[in-house]
Amino acid sequence: xxxxxxxxxxxxxxxxxxxxxxxxxxxxxxxxxxxxxxxxxxxxxxxxxxxxxxxxxxxxxxxxxxxxxxxxxxxxxxxxxxxxxxxxxxxxxxxxxxxxxxxxxxxxxxxxxxxxxxxxxxxxxxxxxxxxxxxxxxxxxxxxxxxxxxxxxxxxxxxxxxxxxxxxxxxxxxxxxxxxxxxxxxxxxxxxxxxxxxxxxxxxxxxxxxxxxxxxxxxxxxxxxxxxxxxxxxxxxxxxxxxxxxxxxxxxxxxxxxxxxxxxxxxxxxxxxxxxxxxxxxxxxxxxxxxxxxxxxxxxxxxxxxxxxxxxxxxxxxxxxxxxxxxxxxxxxxxxxxxxxxxxxxxxxxxxxxxxxxxxxxxxxxxxxxxxxxxxxxxxxxxxxxxxxxxxxxxxxxxxxxxxxxxxxxxxxx
Length: 414
Prior knowledge:
Layout: E1 11-13, E2 19-21, E3 23-24, E4 33-38, E5 47-53, E6 57-65, H1 69-81, E7 86-90, E8 94-108, E9 116-125, H2 138-160, H3 166-191, H4 195-210, H5 212-215, H6 219-231, H7 240-255, H8 267-293, H9 300-327, H10 335-355, E10 361-365, H11 372-380, H12 387-394, H13 398-402, E11 409-413
Antiparallel strand pairs: 1-2, 1-7, 3-6, 4-5, 6-9, 7-8, 8-9, 10-11
Helix pairs in contact: 2-6, 2-8, 2-10, 3-4, 3-7, 3-8, 4-6, 6-8, 7-8, 7-9, 8-9, 8-10, 9-10
């Protein structure tokens, strides 16, 4: 495939999810390498401290033309005025999360080109609102964001799959059956920890598997039930580490699949398989999110580690999705993505905010043999309340419970 065959359609999707394509001329992108230069006496040369790089910038000159160019330009200008993060589909550099930044100019060539407008602006790549604060009720906002995602994902799935022919329905059914098996394999152990959660998880699973022949023809209902199935075990009383590991495992099993297969099956069937896998993998991210807001964190490191896990899982799923969209030459309207990105941002913000109120991890190395009783009294000021916690947080063995040896590293929280 030559370079000109790799050029994609150029478009911008606003924070509200509205997408408008545009024409363009020569393109470029820019970024800054951050660092500090240090010169030392009697030493030749300069030491450069590498501090990473800025987000990339995409200066563009856009063209709108035709009998309705003025209306199209007005609509595009309105998208640029929306507050928040949008999605640029660059013809050369791919899809990027961006915010229009700096001066935006519009020129209507009434004399030289009466049906043409030119807009010049720069899109800046953004990491998004990763750690938002000032939330009146952060946990409730996260739950609402997940519900908004469920609705948007169901609509995207229903709009994206094709079930017009018997072949399409059979292929989607087989794909879905396999994915539901993966969900059960990955999440059943977590759901089993709590009886009411186990019953709910099994009931939704039975509803899908027993009614799959009907639900295939009702993709909106099928998508909603799938999201509820995946998120149900997140409310179980299992440890947050076990829940995040289970959802991470589910996402990884899907991302390791064949994705957009290039076999001889029809394109519609390939798209159906991708849409079903995307719904399930993205659902795993929401499962991790629901796990977080249904957990009582007591340690700062645990909360921050959970934030990192959610971000890493979201990035992995999103990168996989982008690769498959390109392979299948599909255009993502961005509706579900925007809702999922917002839920992830709110979740990480919630975790970072509560981490400031949680206990900080400390470590010491014992300079002499100690008993857990006197060590607990020294570190925590009490024995009865913290003795079990000291044992569990350090994974103490039977002999260590009797006497901690000299040189043993101990973790405690203050």
